[in-house]
Amino acid sequence: MSTQSLGEQTVDLLACLVRLGCVNDLTADSGGEERAADLLEEFFEGLPVSIERITPHPGRTTLVVTVEGTQVADGLQGRGHGSDQGHGTGALTLIGHTDVVPVDEERWTHPPFGAVTQDGVMWGRGTVDMLHLTAAMAVVTREVARRAQEGAPPARSLVFVAAADEEARGGLGVPWIGEHRPDAFPWEAALSEMGGAHIRGRRGGDSVVVVVGEKGAAQRRLHIRGDAGHGSVPLGRTSAVERLAQVSAALSSARWPTATDEVWASFVRAFEFDETTETSLIDGTYDGDYSEFADLAAFAHAISHVTVAQTVARSGGPINVMPSHATLELDIRTLPGVDDDDVDAAIVAALGNLSEHVTIERLLSEPATASSIDTGLYRAIEAALSRRYPGARVVPVLMPGGTDLRVARRRGGIGYGFGAYDSGASLGDVYAQLHAHDEHIALADVRATAEVLHEVVTEYLTHS
Ligand SMILES: [Zn+2]
């Protein structure tokens, strides 16, 4: 077996995964993640792991690799005495997706699937999102399996999930498994993507983020009633188009629920603003444009608000007919603790008197999810990042978008977005790389991810 360091193994595996180019264009026949599953299955050859392939659609394979912990065996023995009901075995699940988003090849200065490495940087689609972490998960899991083979198995089980179809919100990946094969792997404690970036405070303080939750979705279609009539005699009538414009304006100027919780507060503190600004942001009285957050302005606004984007409007037919019906669709993203009734109440409040002309239809609804920071896994992450970046604060954050972790959280588990950036890459830098042209990562960050992940996993697995 390889004598390379974990970091070098991860760099090599990352290059292989980039070159596979498992591009997910949102169609069922794209992705081809079975190629990544093949590669990763071979990666564990000869080691004491159990492997399962889950393929909901041809080519869309998710690979599940389990290194069994000794605690599992104890738990099974204990079952006869009623000491274990088959849950809470303490397993850790690493969820890494193997698909990537499409590229606009002409806009790239390096071949997007070449994994070209130059001056300590690897270029390629998926290097940041999230193949470097998927590779690190595979390497760390292989290391744990190798230790088990040498007679030192972990106390807790470790499961590595190389997941398909994350970029299409997982219709053939982790959410599919959660719905159709929920016993395929444990959900109680999971790590996945998008943590580890830095926030540099105004006074120079360094913070490193751990993602603890993500916003939910509460899509709505508003049915707006107007007065029908002939376009030649409009006096005294308000067409549905005109009323839609009034509704739209009312929604635009409304204030929507804001976060005032400790996760938001610790994010704000990381920026080290002056006291007045900091206090107003934390207590929800801030009235500015978020420009203090620079390249994270939209991000900061999103993670602290129920956001309402007006995205689709429909009404009207013949030009000489005043329509009586219009629809306006809203892409609403919710905060933890905000449910469908809260959203509808906020819409009604925003509309005021207009609400008598509006019926709210609920479309897709997915609650926001967030995990407590008072857990052994969070503490293990916090400790490892603090060792790596002395003096840095470890800051829990919410993400505006979704990852596979929402499935684990919804199934009652805890889930954190992990990462480690020795380059000091800021949260803004990392966000700017997502789905962007010329996606690239510093090799130092690839190595850091593998090394810090190994510390977290080792620490967590040895505690029983
Ligand atoms: Zn991703």
Give your account of this protein's structure:
The radius of gyration is 25 Å and the shape is globular. It is an alpha+beta fold and 464 residues long. It has a six-stranded mixed sheet. Strands 8, 9, 16 and 17 form a four-stranded mixed sheet that branches. Strands 12-14-10-15 form a four-stranded antiparallel sheet, with helices on one face. The model is unreliable at 75-87 (pLDDT under 50). β1 and β2 form a beta hairpin. It is 35% helix and 22% strand. It folds into two domains: 6-196 and 374-462, Aminopeptidase; 213-366, Alpha-Beta Plaits (2-Layer Sandwich), CATH 3.30.70.360. It binds zinc ion (ZN).
Into how many domains do the coordinates divide?
2
Radius of gyration: 25 Å
Major beta sheet, specifics?
6 strands, mixed
Binned strand content: 15-25%
Give the uncertain stretches in residue-range form.
75-87
Number of strands: 19
CATH fold label of the largest domain: Aminopeptidase
Which molecules are bound besides the chains?
zinc ion
Helical segment count: 14
Mean pLDDT: 94
Helix content: 25-40%
Shape: globular
How many angstroms does the end-to-end distance come to?
A: 29 Å
Q: What is the class of the largest domain in the CATH system? A: Alpha Beta
What would CATH call the homologous superfamily of the largest domain?
A: Zn peptidases
**CATH architecture designation of the largest domain:** 3-Layer(aba) Sandwich
Largest sheet strand order: 1-2-6-3-7-18
Class by helix and strand content? alpha+beta
